[in-house]
Amino acid sequence: MGRELAARGWLPDLALVSPAPRTRDTWRLVAAELPVPPRIAFKALYDASAADILSQIGQTDASSGSLLVIGHNPGLEHLARQLAGPGSDAKALKRLEEKFPTAALARVVFEGDWSVVSPARLTHCCGRRTLASVHGRCGRQSPPHARLSRQFPQLPWPDSGWTESGLSVRSRCLTSLWVEAV
What letter would DSSP give residue 70? Predict the structure, then answer.
């Protein structure tokens, strides 16, 4: 997912990440692929409703032009559907309506400030298979934990070591929403 964000030039200014261990682990994998790690805020997104997530987004600093929310379904799926307003891409909307699975990314763009995100345009809805067709399998072979912690010391790392296979499995826990102000 991080590789795909970087390849498309979708570099977040801020990441809102659920404090759940699997989303934190996934965030580390995503951040490792970004050329410049964004600011990060751990927010109460576990079991959050669409309204709760939208409230968290509404508190975003005006200096942030783009935001990546890494959380959980069904809240993120409901919010993505709620935000997909007039002018949304028909293929992306169809994909979102069919299913918003684990490891999916929905990208919405809106005009205005963070306190009034809706309505927005859904421009992309990428699932794990879509991303895998671009960059090979979704669960990439990750460098060891020690290398990542040296590369990104500002991120909170767990005390226990990770195995590459564990990272690969954990990478499938990501469900995310990309929100961009234009």
Answer: E
